[in-house]
Design a protein that fits this description.
The chain is mainly α. The protein has 16 helices and 4 strands. Strands 1-4 form a two-stranded parallel ribbon. A two-stranded parallel ribbon has the order 2-3. The longest helix is centred in the N-terminal third of the chain and has 27 residues. It is globular, with a radius of gyration of 20 Å. 43% of the residues are buried.
């Protein structure tokens, strides 16, 4: 058994921009999938309403019902709301950037902790600078990986307190400004919403929402999504993995992660079309079929730790202001080329 004591370092550039260019050259029709899906706002409204109704139903129930409802139902709704926030972050609902931000903050409400706008700040850099430790918040800190180690207990605690560990990562991302007016607005809205829930429904309802949030990102099979996306679970040659399992139905296709990194300007409902159109680029990659299986594998397999990640020091020529839309940029560049006139 080989236990990693450091990350895997790569001198290669992140793989997605290169693959996007190759795929678009071979399958130019994929450009037609780029666009917005304003109907996603109805999913957001429905999920927020679902969580509020569930909070109301468990307000007078025993703690067993609160925990059970959060684990079996609320976690899935909150996880789906994370996907909705993710869609808003990539501006895949509306053309107006601020409209997307308001939608993301609305989706954030049942999750109690204000995270929608901060997620936008850090997630786009994850796309633009995948594997660059000082800009990619998806990468664990080195002390974090050492602390958690390879044991079941350490990894279980990491999943249980996953949002806390993410907060500690922000201090190393010094080039990204953490506070602005949108961050403050997000915070104020969460305070108002949580206060209203506590006043009208009581603390059982607030606890249900907090537990739903915790389970949706942590000690729950859904928490395996964070392992699925970029942890080296099969080979050190591939740093992004997709999930093609049944839970994509209730997770709005978030498992199509290679597809999303290759085409971040394509909304969630069209991601399966990418794989269907260009199967030779995705069927040849390793992928996961079960978050539950991966969840237990991560916990019990002592060869998998937080060190199973690729780091790179070279940023390439990507500017800090990059908004990670290589597919849209390549499509615009192709459209701007003068047409050859033949007689």
């Amino acid at each position: 058994m080989i236990k990693k004591t450091d990350f895997v370092y790569s001198s290669e550039s992140e793989p997605h921009r290169i693959r996007t260019k190759k795929i678009l050259k071979q399958f130019p029709q994929l450009r037609n999938l780029i666009g917005k899906n304003p109907n996603t706002i109805f999913a957001i409204v429905g999920l927020v309403a679902f969580q509020v109704v569930l909070a109301w139903l468990v307000r007078d129930q025993s703690w067993w019902w609160v925990f059970g409802a959060a684990y079996a139902l609320g976690a899935f709704a909150d996880h789906a709301l994370f996907v909705m926030i993710h869609e808003c972050t990539h501006q895949l609902l509306f053309k107006n950037r601020n409209a997307n931000r308001w939608a993301s903050m609305f989706a954030n409400l049942p999750q109690i902790l204000p995270s929608a706008i901060s997620f936008e700040k850090y997630h786009i850099k994850h796309h633009s600078f995948q594997g660059v430790h000082e800009l990619d918040a998806d990468l664990p800190n080195k002390w974090e990986a050492k602390l958690i180690g390879h044991s079941f207990f350490g990894k279980a605690m990491w999943l249980l307190f996953f949002p806390v560990f993410q907060l500690f990562r922000l201090s190393r991302l010094r080039e990204i400004h953490p506070i602005d007016g949108w961050i403050i607005t997000n915070f104020v809205l969460q305070v108002i919403f949580t206060t209203a829930i506590a006043y009208f429904m009581g603390w059982h309802a607030v606890a249900f929402l907090l537990l739903s949030f915790s389970f949706s990102v942590g000690l729950h099979p859904l928490g395996a999504r964070w392992i699925q996306e970029h942890y080296l679970t099969h080979t050190e040659e591939q740093e992004t993995y997709s999930y093609y399992g049944n839970l994509n139905v209730v997770a709005f296709n978030v498992g199509f992660h290679n597809e999303h990194h290759d085409f971040p300007s394509i909304p969630w409902n069209k991601l399966p079309e990418i794989k269907k159109t260009a199967p030779e680029y995705y069927d040849t990659l390793y992928y996961h079929t079960s978050w539950t299986k991966l969840f237990f594998r991560f916990l019990f397999d002592r060869e998998i730790s937080l060190f199973n990640r690729i780091l790179r020091k070279d940023r390439g020529r990507v500017a800090l202001t990059d908004v990670s839309k290589p597919d849209a940029e390549m499509s615009r560049a192709e459209a701007a080329k003068p047409e050859l006139i033949t007689e």
